[in-house]
């Protein structure tokens, strides 16, 4: 089992910080755009930005898997993020920011995965800090310091990554087994996409039995990031199924019966986010040599979950049913993937 070198670990750390900066700048600008619009137009901008940033990620993933131009995508993301930040045209600004977000996530995810397909800790680290960026950009969009400085840091750190990282054009990863039928492989991919969709949906409809303040919102962002971070580490220590099963069962208990205790709800947020790096790791095992596409598929499945969560109207019975069904489906999805990996046909 090949260990990740010190230089490559440094690149992973930088990319995780870049993830924070990218999401911070993009959401910061989008929130500023929304503040100047009538409420009816909020939906249009929301769909436009997220459609470009997330739903189109699989296309960028296909391109990067084919041409292996991670550095070029990262450099182009600098151009797009600056254009999106400085333009006053609402539509163009959101499109450029969405493109910057899309290119960075796919290129950064591809680079991290290339360093090791046997471990998940680095995937957890990479995806984790984006939650901090989203929290800062969403709740402190009046602070110009949180806009200018991150753009400068983002540009400098991208250049450093490009200087350190060596692209590998013809790297092939041996599949876990050659006996998996294509139909079962497709089902496994669909199951993993559904697991991420469910996590996104449940995360959006969570009911809090108390009034939230800005301190709790900040802690929620930190808890979300921590959950993704430790998800990869726990997977490496105990395996995917055990971690997913225990974390989701405990999460369900907290969401359904202890939603009036703020500390436990923070723990519930940690638990529901543990699955993110695990699903990415499992998808890369099922569908090797398509790491860019894999990252894009899971990212694309986040947006529909969030969109459905936003239109959901809380009602006790429906909430209980949705949470239980969602968590059970997630566990069954990971169970199917693990059995497929072990049994092949």
Description:
With 345 residues, the protein is an all-alpha fold. It folds into 2 domains: 6-164; 182-343, Up-down Bundle (Growth Hormone, Chain: A), CATH 1.20.1250.20. The chain is built from 15 helices and no strands. The chain has helices at 6-35, 39-55, 57-67, 70-86, 90-115, 121-128, 130-139, 145-164, 182-205, 214-238, 240-257, 262-273, 275-286, 291-311, 316-343. α1 runs parallel beside α6, α9 runs parallel beside α14 (291-311) and α10 (214-238) packs across α12. The two termini are 26 Å apart. 46% of the residues are buried. The mean pLDDT is 89.
Q: In one word, what is the shape?
A: globular
The major β-sheet equals: none
Architecture of the largest domain in CATH? Answer: Up-down Bundle
- DSSP helical segment count: 15
Report the structural category.
mainly alpha
Average pLDDT, all residues = 89
In total, how many domains does the architecture comprise?
Answer: 2
What does the radius of gyration come to? 19 Å
Number of strands: 0
Secondary-structure map:
Blueprint: H1 6-35, H2 39-55, H3 57-67, H4 70-86, H5 90-115, H6 121-128, H7 130-139, H8 145-164, H9 182-205, H10 214-238, H11 240-257, H12 262-273, H13 275-286, H14 291-311, H15 316-343
């Amino acid at each position: 089992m090949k260990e990740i070198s010190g230089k490559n670990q440094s690149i992973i750390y930088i990319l995780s910080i870049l993830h924070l900066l990218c999401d911070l700048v993009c959401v910061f600008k989008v929130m500023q755009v929304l503040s100047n619009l009538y409420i009816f137009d909020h939906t249009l901008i929301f769909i436009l930005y997220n459609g470009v940033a997330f739903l189109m990620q699989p296309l960028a993933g296909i391109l990067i898997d084919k041409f292996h131009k991670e550095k070029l995508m990262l450099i182009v993301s600098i151009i797009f993020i600056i254009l999106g930040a400085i333009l006053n045209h609402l539509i163009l600004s959101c499109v450029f920011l969405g493109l910057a977000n899309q290119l960075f996530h796919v290129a950064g995810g591809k680079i991290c995965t290339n360093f090791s397909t046997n471990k998940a800790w680095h995937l957890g680290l990479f995806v984790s800090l984006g939650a901090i960026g989203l929290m800062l950009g969403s709740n402190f969009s009046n602070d110009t310091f949180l806009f200018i400085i991150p753009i400068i840091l983002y540009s400098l750190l991208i250049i450093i990554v490009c200087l350190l990282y060596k692209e590998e054009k013809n790297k092939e990863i041996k599949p876990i087994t050659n006996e998996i039928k294509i139909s079962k492989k497709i089902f496994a991919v669909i199951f993993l996409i559904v697991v991420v969709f469910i996590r996104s949906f449940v995360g959006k409809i969570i009911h809090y039995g108390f009034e939230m303040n800005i301190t709790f919102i900040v802690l929620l962002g930190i808890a979300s990031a921590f959950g993704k971070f430790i998800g990869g580490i726990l997977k490496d220590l105990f395996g995917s199924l055990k971690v997913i099963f225990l974390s989701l069962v405990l999460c369900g208990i907290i969401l359904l019966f202890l939603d009036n205790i703020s500390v436990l709800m923070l723990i519930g947020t940690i638990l529901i986010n543990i699955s993110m790096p695990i699903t990415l790791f499992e998808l890369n095992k099922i569908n090797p040599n398509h790491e860019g596409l894999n990252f894009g598929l899971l990212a694309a499945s986040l947006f529909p979950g969030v969109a459905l969560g936003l239109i959901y109207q809380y009602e006790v019975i429906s909430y209980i049913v949705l949470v239980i069904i969602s968590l059970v489906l997630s566990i069954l999805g990971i169970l199917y993937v693990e059995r497929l990996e072990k049994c092949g046909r």
